[in-house]
Specification:
CATH superfamily: P-loop containing nucleotide triphosphate hydrolases
Number of strands: 7
CATH class: Alpha Beta
Strand order of the largest sheet: 3-2-4-5-1-6-7
Distance between the termini: 36 Å
Oligomer: single chain
Strand content: 15-25%
Number of domains: 1
Structural class: alpha/beta
Shape: globular
């Protein structure tokens, strides 16, 4: 069994894996184990015309304990993270949705936005759990926006993985602590 026991007042955890792998459930388990009041930061944008999307959002909502506070922030992730207290656990679900929400940003603006997030994550003072999708394990998307999304999310997850500990991969019904099993690559330069 994978255990989570914070060794200080600060914990930056990254959970990644494929769709429907249990990433969010593992993040929720870790948030409960933190013993702190939990803020659930949802990056999804509600679309009442998309019933399948609404069902997914409702599934997540029903799983969460009633005493958790939900924050909905599809764009200003860094500022929202910066505003939370060290006495809380902040669960961000998900980075992939956040990247998709900002896909229209030009490369220079995206570089600034993602760098601002990395700086805020390094300065965070409480428990912070980030959920991120793995999108690059399949074919290269045939359309430009798909490739842009995959590349931006992949690089962001790599950059966060370099500063997070632990980093979990959830796949095939298992949770793997990559910090214990793997060797880190050098921090990416871009």
């Amino acid at each position: 069994m994978v255990k989570y026991s914070p060794t200080s007042t600060k914990s930056l955890i990254l959970i990644t894996g494929p769709s429907r792998s249990g990433k969010s459930e593992w993040a929720e388990t870790l948030a409960i184990r933190s013993g702190k009041p939990v803020f659930y930061l949802a990056t999804a944008q509600v679309d009442l015309n998309d019933t399948e999307w609404q069902a997914r959002i409702e599934q997540h909502q029903l799983r969460r304990p009633a005493n958790w506070q939900t924050l909905c922030e599809p764009v200003n992730l860094a500022a929202t993270i910066a505003a939370y207290s060290a006495n809380h656990c902040l669960l961000v679900d998900s980075l992939g949705t956040w990247v998709a929400n900002l896909l229209e940003e030009d490369n220079e603006t995206w570089d600034q936005t993602s760098q601002e997030l990395i700086i805020i994550l390094q300065q965070a003072t409480g428990d912070l759990i980030l959920v991120a999708e793995e999108t690059g394990w399949g074919i290269v998307p045939a359309y430009k926006s798909g490739r842009l999304f995959r590349d931006r999310l992949g690089m962001l997850v790599r950059r966060i993985g370099a500063i997070a500990n632990p980093v979990y991969l959830v796949t095939g019904g298992y949770v793997l602590n990559l910090c214990q099993l793997g060797s880190p690559l050098p921090q990416p330069t871009t």
